[in-house]
Design a protein that fits this description.
heterotrimer, B: 418 residues, mainly alpha, MetI-like fold, 2 domains, C: 458 residues, 15 helices, flat, binds adenosine-5'-triphosphate, binds magnesium ion
């Protein structure tokens, strides 16, 4: 795998020789990858190949699984995130996450978005919080739809709106990286289009990593694509290259739909 | 709205301090949680500790050695009559009690007869009945002391009694042994001869009746609801009844039993029969709910397979579903029965709190139950009953815990994953 | 000769066994003779005969054993010797039962002289009705058995019939629950109505003086407020103050923090705590907790400190309820989807922030339902309050004072004299009705909430 054409000068995150185990079972095998600051990176690969596992090790959500163990080195701005000095609470604030199924809290829309800033103490006053909530909702493209019903429950929104609410929730703490694990797989095409549009707009403000099963989506939203298979990183490169001119046979088979 | 966002300063002192505070809160919270768990455990430990601490002594009793010389004080009685049915009366009217009292006075000094239990002579009586030859000579009997003496020997006491007991102890006349009457006899006013066997037997009879009624009824009802019942308003009514009955306070069942079983049907009051009926009504909903869960967990594939080879719906249920669900049903039943065994409140209302000095002979004879015996003894003023109460509690807890342990064993042994 | 239902039941069971064998034999026989196959296997024919033999006779036996004592008594009362009986009350009942005991051989001699002339009539009547009953029962059994026996033919659908009967049994068994519910409602209502003819419901529900006495005028002595207050103070306030925080925190710790090993050990311990009989808790409260609390109160200089205190009963009741609250909370917290927890943690919340601000609010409906059930349990609990809370009806907010509860008073009212019609006994049923209605409402509300909540996360 040649790296020259995609060496990222100042990667936001860098993984080196990462292995992830669930008990005795190895789910990720020696993966090294750079995530660019201004780029959208897509992870693709057949089901069970370890995309989610790898994504979750980027903000240490794997810590919540008792049997999971991560080895190797993962850096955020050059700092080892598994080092004892790294505080996981801050790490997760800096590396936000959006899940496959929209999971708004059973609270009002306002409180959903305000939750992160409140716990991290980012808003000294109510007025500050109002500003933060509004900005996050605006950025998530949800403001116009919900500005009149901020006190309604977040669970009362439609699926697509819920997912954008979750993105707003993640944005509200002003993260540096946003990890999205199949954010559109539970949504209809129109809602999906809205999220993709949103990803376009957010690009450049945050480093974005997105896991997707949808080849077209990966091609549409990302600049870099990583193809995983059976826990290994098979190929990583510019999205255009991967989809038009894959170097590996397995990648080619996968994107042409021969298996997976 | 478009003011540029300066990135949050995560490394700043204020933020670091805040984070430290949050972690401290986290540790506090976790500590409180652990504290709650430990507190629950401590309650249990303390309760068991108090009961065992008080009760262990209740299993023993202090005896005093009293030699009785029947040659000097003959019991005028024909030996042939000792095997008669009315031997007890014959011996009593021959004045054995006086002889024993006299012997005690002689052996233990003035007032010695007050040191032995007023029922001590009955021990002598049964010894004589076992071995009439005793009447021809002098024998040293280990007689139960009066309750106060027993207490003084165990705890120490001040005053005249304390001195007397100390003296006896020094002479080596006192001995401590397992208190057999505790396991063999029924309630009595004298701690020296009061026992739990009457209550325990009452409990066993009562539970037996309750089981005989509640188990088949509960299982059949569960089978009906789970396997056959159509979804209609009747079925809903049955389900609502069962769920509510399971949560109705137990004393309400006592009121029901009093009004229906005793005042209306006139079933023998205070008997294991009426107690068992009451507890059966109380336990049945529990059995139904447990049985339904067990039946539900039998996979439909087994029913389909049986139906497929031409079994009728009734055969499917009785030949295939029921045997597979049985371990779960039994587990639920044992737990329900254990609960019934510890129940007191409804039985208070149907007369089972009366003083019963005899071991019950049948399901219709007046009787009490173990938890009720505990309740009755807990009200006794005589200090000797305090440790008897705790000892009875230990027995009850041992029975209940072994039932529960057996249920858990069954559950683990037969737990099946389909 | 007496009417021994158990022995007779055994007798017809034996007859049924014979019927079973005979039915089986005959079905084989008729099939062989006709040279065809039976529709149902032989044992179903056997069961068919046995059922016809057993069921009508057993039913008759049940009816007869409940009505015949009444018939016997009527017959005895019609006798001349009974004319001299006192016309009413306790004495009359005692004489009759004395005579009955002697007549039935349970007792060697009469204790009341007035009973002596009744013994012979009693024995005669008992003898007569026993024979009538036995004869009728046997006739029914034989008729049923014969009827079934003659119906055995190769194409007779015995299995269908038997299975239909089995279904009827299943249905009957499940009706017992409804019957019990109706029994409770009717018996409570019936006695309560009689009570309310003596004392107005308003008085019971809102009166503030509770001092029922035998034979005393009933005015102003059946005010239930002190009882209701005592019940609420102990069961809904003190016990919950103990049980809710400890139970909730136990559940939180076990579900969120504890290692699986710890969970495996702590859960059975909680089950033991739940399995300790209430009389043991009551004894513990009265023997250990109450005296300690009294000393404490005296030390603080609190007036009216009593060895029977609301606090002692309430605390111990709270301990008893802990496992219940914790298992309900455990279930509710576990029912909150994992995604909710992940969502919060992924924002950088600490576990305790996640628990307090996301999980518990999300689990709240389920927890509330559980708490309602716990309250319903606490206010229906009897032994602890009987043994530790006392019987004096005080309307006080001082937890160190003695208060009484509905359940304790029910016990008190029904365990004194056994005169069944006095206002005191009837009052127990009226209190029982109040208790039943309140716990029923609590249970229904709780089950509704919990069910709704379950659906929300499905
Ligand atoms: N909590 C866990 N415990 C044990 N094994 C796990 C756990 N989570 C995932 N795995 C295993 O790790 C491997 C990778 O799983 P992962 O969820 O990362 O795959 P994925 O690529 O995200 O699949 P999908 O596209 O279906 O989401 C799988 O074999 C899976 O079974
Ligand atoms: Mg995945």
């Amino acid at each position: 795998m040649t790296q020259d054409d995609l060496t990222i000068a100042d990667p936001k995150m860098r993984a080196e020789g990462v292995n992830v185990f669930y008990g005795d079972k190895q789910a990720i095998n020696d993966v090294s990858i750079d995530v660019g600051t201004d780029l959208v990176t897509a992870f693709i690969g057949p089901s069970g190949c370890g995309k989610s596992t790898f994504l979750r090790s980027l903000n240490r959500m794997n810590d919540t699984v008792a049997s999971a163990k991560v080895t190797g080195r993962i850096e955020l701005d050059g700092e080892d995130i598994y080092a004892p000095s790294m505080d996981v609470v801050q790490l997760r604030a800096r590396v936000g996450m959006v899940f496959q199924k929209p999971n708004p809290f059973p609270k009002s829309i306002y409180d959903n978005v305000g939750y992160g800033p409140r716990i991290h103490g980012l808003a000294p006053s109510k007025a500050d919080l109002d500003v933060i909530v509004e900005r996050a909702l605006v950025r998530a493209g949800l403001w116009d739809e919900v500005k009149d019903r901020l006190l309604e429950s977040g669970t009362a929104l439609s699926g697509g709106q819920q997912q954008r609410l979750c993105i707003a929730r993640a944005i509200a703490v002003d993260p540096e990286v946003i990890l999205m694990d199949e954010p559109c797989s539970a949504l209809d095409p129109i809602a999906t289009a809205k999220i993709e549009e949103l990803i376009h707009e957010l690009r450049g403000k945050f480093a974005i990593v997105i896991v997707t099963h949808n080849m077209q989506q990966a091609a549409r939203v990302s600049q870099r694509t990583a193809f995983f298979h059976l826990g290994t990183l098979v190929e990583y490169g510019k999205t255009t290259d991967i989809f038009t001119n894959p170097k590996q046979e397995r990648t080619k088979d996968y994107i042409t739909g021969r298996y997976g | 709205m478009n003011k540029p966002t300066n990135p949050t300063d995560w490394k700043g002192a204020a933020m670091q301090k805040r984070i430290a505070g949050r972690y401290a809160a986290e540790r506090r919270f976790k500590f409180i949680g652990l504290g709650a768990v430990l507190l629950s455990g401590a309650f249990l430990a303390f309760l068991l500790f108090v009961m065992v601490g008080n009760g262990a002594r209740g299993f023993t009793y202090t005896n005093v050695a009293v030699p009785i010389d029947f040659k000097a004080m003959p019991l005028t009685i024909e030996k042939a009559r000792l095997s008669d049915a009315d031997a007890d009366q014959v011996i009593a009217s021959a004045g054995l009690a006086d002889i024993v009292d006299f012997a005690a006075d002689e052996a233990l000094g003035d007032g010695g007869s007050a040191l032995i239990s007023e029922n001590a002579w009955k021990e002598v009586r049964s010894a004589i009945k076992d071995d009439p030859a005793l009447l021809d000579g002098k024998t040293v009997f280990e007689l139960p002391t009066a309750s106060a003496v027993d207490m003084a020997a165990k705890d120490g006491a001040a005053g005249a009694l304390g001195a007397q007991v100390d003296a006896l102890e020094k002479d080596g006349k006192l001995s401590t042994g397992i208190h057999w009457p505790f396991f063999k006899s029924a309630d009595a006013t004298d701690p020296a001869v009061a026992g739990i066997w009457g209550a325990l037997k009452g409990s066993l009879l009562t539970i037996f009746i309750a089981f005989l009624i509640a188990f088949p009824t509960g299982v059949l009802a569960a089978l009906y609801l789970e396997e056959y019942a159509a979804k209609n308003r009747w079925t809903d009514l049955i389900e609502v009844s069962i769920n509510n009955l399971a949560a109705v306070p137990s004393i309400i069942f006592g009121l029901l039993a009093l009004a229906v079983f005793i005042n209306w049907f006139g079933i023998c009051q205070a008997s294991p029969l009426v107690g068992g009926l009451t507890l059966a009504l109380m336990t049945m909903p529990v059995i139904v709910i447990a049985s339904r869960n067990a039946i539900k967990s039998v996979p439909p594939s087994i029913r389909d397979a049986a139906l497929g080879v031409g079994a009728s719906p009734v055969q499917v249920v009785f030949h295939h579903v029921l045997p597979l669900a049985l371990p779960g049903i039994l587990t639920g039943t044992i737990i329900g029965m254990a609960r019934a065994l510890g129940e007191t409140a409804p039985l208070l209302l149907i007369g089972m709190r009366a003083f019963i000095g005899d071991v019950p002979s049948g399901i219709c004879s007046p009787s009490t139950v173990l938890p009720m015996q505990i309740f009755l003894w807990s009200d006794e003023v005589d200090r000797g009953f305090v440790e008897k109460t705790s000892a009875a509690i230990i027995v009850l807890l041992v029975v209940l815990l072994s039932m529960n342990a057996f249920a858990i064993y069954l559950r683990n042994k037969f737990e099946q994953r389909w | 000769m007496t009417f021994n239902a158990a022995a007779l039941l055994l007798l017809i069971a034996g007859l049924a066994l014979i019927g079973w064998i005979a039915g089986r034999q005959r079905s084989n026989l008729v099939a062989g003779r006709a040279g065809t196959k039976l529709h149902s296997r032989p044992q179903y024919h056997g069961w068919y005969v046995a059922l016809w033999l057993f069921a009508p006779a057993a039913l008759f036996l049940a009816v007869w054993s409940s009505v015949s004592p009444g018939l016997i008594t009527n017959e005895v009362l019609a006798n001349e010797a009974a004319q001299s009986l006192p016309s009413f009350g306790f004495e009359r009942g005692a004489i009759l039962s004395d005579a009955r005991s002697v007549a039935l051989g349970k007792q060697d001699a009469v204790r009341l002289p007035a009973a002596a002339p009744l013994v012979q009539p009693y024995a005669d009547a008992a003898y007569k009705y026993a024979w009538i009953g036995i004869a009728a029962m046997l006739a029914l059994a034989l008729a049923g058995g014969l009827y079934a026996f003659t119906r055995i033919k190769p194409d007779f659908r015995a299995r269908t019939r038997v299975e239909r009967t089995v279904m009827a049994f299943l249905l009957l068994a499940s009706l017992v629950a409804i019957l019990t519910t109706f029994g409770i409602v009717l018996s409570l209502l019936f006695e309560s109505i009689r009570f309310f003819q003596l004392v107005s419901p308003m008085e019971l529900l809102f009166g503030t003086n509770w001092a029922p006495q035998s034979g005393a005028p009933v005015d102003d002595t059946f005010g239930g407020i002190p009882l209701f207050w005592g019940t609420v103070l102990i069961g809904a306030i003190i016990a919950m103050i103990v049980a809710i925080p400890i139970g909730m925190m136990t559940a939180v710790y076990l579900t969120q923090y504890a290692a699986p090993v710890v969970r495996r050990w702590v859960k059975p311990i909680l089950e033991i705590l739940a399995g300790v009989p209430t009389v043991v808790y009551g004894y513990f409260a009265a023997l250990t907790v109450a005296p300690a609390l009294r000393e404490f109160a005296v030390m603080l200089g609190i007036p009216n400190a009593s060895t029977e205190s609301a606090l002692a009963a309430g605390i111990v009741m709270g301990v008893m309820i802990i496992p219940f609250v914790s298992s309900m909370a455990d279930d509710s917290i576990n029912a909150v989807p994992q995604a909710m927890r992940d969502g919060s943690l992924a924002l950088g919340a600490t576990p305790n922030e996640t628990i307090r601000q996301v999980l518990i609010p999300a689990a709240l409906p389920g927890v509330m339902g559980g708490i309602l059930l716990a309250v319903s349990r606490a206010i229906g609990e009897t032994m602890i309050v009987v043994m530790a809370a006392g019987l004096s009806a005080n309307l006080t907010a001082n937890p160190f004072a003695s208060v009484t509860t509905v359940t304790a008073q029910i016990v008190k009212l029904l365990t004194g004299d056994q005169e069944f019609d006095s206002a005191k006994t009837l009052a127990a049923f009226a209190l029982g009705l109040v208790l039943f209605v309140v716990t029923l409402l609590l249970n229904i509300a709780a089950l509704r909430i919990v069910k709704k909540y379950r659906e929300a996360y499905e």
